[in-house]
Amino acid sequence: MYALAIHGGAGAMPRAQMPAARAAQARAALAAALAAGFAELERGAGSLDAVTRAVMALEDEPLFNAGRGAVYTLDGHHELDASIMEGTTLRAGAVCAVRHVRNPVALARAVMEHSPYVLLAAEGAEEFALERGFEPVPQSYFDTEARLEQLERLRRAGPGRLELSQLGTVGAVALDARGRLAAATSTGGITGKRFRRVGDSPLIGAGTYADDRAAAVSCTGHGECFIRAAAAHDVVARMRFGAASLAAAAHAVVHEELGRLGGEGGLIAIDAAGHVVLDFNGEGMYRASRVAGGEPRIGIYRGAGEPD
After folding, report:
1. Which domain holds residue 127?
2. Per-residue b/e over 21-48, b at no fewer than 16 CB within 10 Å?
3. Active site residue 169
4. Average pLDDT by stretches of 10, the chain with 308 residues
């Protein structure tokens, strides 16, 4: 048994406002990323390779807020965060506030595999990237007209509550044929965020967690609430110490704990038996999944024709 699930962020445009062409484009991008990661599992590669490949594909797709297409900070820059974790030995790696790394998830994996650290930040992470042979890209690589328009709308509106539609994170969770779990998450953060703001995505236990004894989890949404709830680890803890099923644990975190904090968002998760959960408490979440022997399942909203 092997399986893969991915997300392209919670906070999808309301269904009534979503142009059909845009929905089709998003579904096609999700399908391509899912196929890229699933191909790794099909050829016998490990779960780490699968989540890395899937997230890199999402980072390269400018529709999503990670890598190319990342949102702008208030001062007009891009600062990217990512993390990765494998569930067998609980090794993890993460980077935050990087500005010149094309695929932050690949750098997070390098931190995990080639350093004694878990999290490297800003210039320290950039220096490590150069030492590991990563070729830097200019800030302009991440620019898109849609994200610039989003920033300009926010500036005109002035400071206020951050809407979930301004957020967007990508992630993947996988179970490989040897029973190993892995999770990865990558984001550009929040449109108009302050200099060096860091959300949940690079924080192990908040936005990403994997443990072969329970599940692999990747989160998306209001990052400050996911940090306060230690959301990704809470799912695993409910399974390990409370004997909850994956579905019950994810539902409690998404609909009870995050709801109690006023946090909107969702998560994807997979357990050691290959059960997949894609849960969210808003109107939509870009998501896709596939299990061995099954067909891809791709969705944005709830209802007929959408995966659970």
Report:
1. 3-299
2. eebeebbebbebbbbbbbebbeeebbbb
3. yes
4. 97 85 94 98 98 98 96 95 98 98 98 98 98 98 95 80 63 98 97 92 98 98 96 98 98 97 96 97 95 97 71
